[in-house]
Backbone:
């Protein structure tokens, strides 16, 4: 593939999960498209950032002043230390905080448990003009819940279809739903957990319960494969983001968002005043005489 073609190739096409697939084909260390060095990835991330920021501002203007109802929702899922927080810091940090919303989903509270699993999720869907990100999501209800047997199998089994219905409803309302699985290896997780324990500044991030999930690695692999295969749909696809290298993860997610926003092609609101008249007024209007 020539250089030009490579630059134009779609990251979404390279990382998208085929609907109905039964296993995750990409490996955590793969670089199926894009930069193969940290230096190049960092350079390209900065370039993508400038365009991302401009498109996000246009989307915000369209939704806030232009009456549009379009928005973006990025769902991040992955094992502990896969980089959900790092992605939010490095990719969402490129955009204007005014137009960005972050929601994190932890173990449901007793109040949340009294409702359907989508109740707390619906409340956090970004409003018009916003780019929202979910740090964990409704997918926990077919991941940890399935692995830990927190509900009976027929209950979680029914959720794949409920999730697909919910997401297609969102798409109809103008939400571009983008779902990224941050794919790390068990070895890389061990290194990152060790780093958390060894560095006093990172120690707070360590949770002894992380080792419970880690011990069930292959059960999580199966649960992820099922969620990705069954819930990667034409309207709301899943992407597998190789995440053993942080620079590749950040680059890939920035590019997936960029492609999504370019497709939306947000429109700046049109002005409802006479431009020439306003320019003349301003030039004449000098408060300092
Ligand atoms: P963290 O994101 O590392 O702060 O951890 C949040 C924890 O909450 C993880 O262990 C998740 O598996 C757990 N969690 C999130 N959503 C659910 C859910 N619906 N049911 C059970 N546990 C959940
Ligand atoms: Mg954690």
Residues:
């Amino acid at each position: 593939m020539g250089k030009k073609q490579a630059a134009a190739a779609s990251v979404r096409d390279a990382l998208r999960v085929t609907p109905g697939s039964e296993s995750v084909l990409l490996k955590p260390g793969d670089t199926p498209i894009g930069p193969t060095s940290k230096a190049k990835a960092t350079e390209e991330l900065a370039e993508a950032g400038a365009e991302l920021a401009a498109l996000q501002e246009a989307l915000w203007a369209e939704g806030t002043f232009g009456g549009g109802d379009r928005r973006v929702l990025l769902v991040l899922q992955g094992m502990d230390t896969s980089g959900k927080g790092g992605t939010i810091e490095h990719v969402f940090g490129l955009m204007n905080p005014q137009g960005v919303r972050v929601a994190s989903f932890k173990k449901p509270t007793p109040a949340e448990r009294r409702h359907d699993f989508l109740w707390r999720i619906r409340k956090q869907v970004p409003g018009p003009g916003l780019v929202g990100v979910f740090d964990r999501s409704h997918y926990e209800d077919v991941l940890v819940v399935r692995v830990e047997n927190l509900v009976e199998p027929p209950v979680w089994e029914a959720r794949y279809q409920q999730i697909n219905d919910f997401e297609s409803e969102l798409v109809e309302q103008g939400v571009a739903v983008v779902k990224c699985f941050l794919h790390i290896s068990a070895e890389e997780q061990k290194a990152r957990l060790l780093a958390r324990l060894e560095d006093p500044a990172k120690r707070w991030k360590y949770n002894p319960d992380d080792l419970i999930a880690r011990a069930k690695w292959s059960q999580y692999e199966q649960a992820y494969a099922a969620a990705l295969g069954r819930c990667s749909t034409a309207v709301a696809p899943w992407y597998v983001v190789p995440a053993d290298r942080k620079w590749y993860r950040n680059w890939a997610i920035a590019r997936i968002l960029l492609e999504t926003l370019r497709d939306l092609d947000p429109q700046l609101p049109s002005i409802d005043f006479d431009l020439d008249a306003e320019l003349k007024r301003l030039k004449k209007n000098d408060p300092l005489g």
User: Anything to note?
Assistant: Residues 80, 207, 210 surround magnesium ion (ligand 2) (CB under 6 Å). Residues 3-284 form a domain with the Rossmann fold fold (CATH 3.40.50.300).
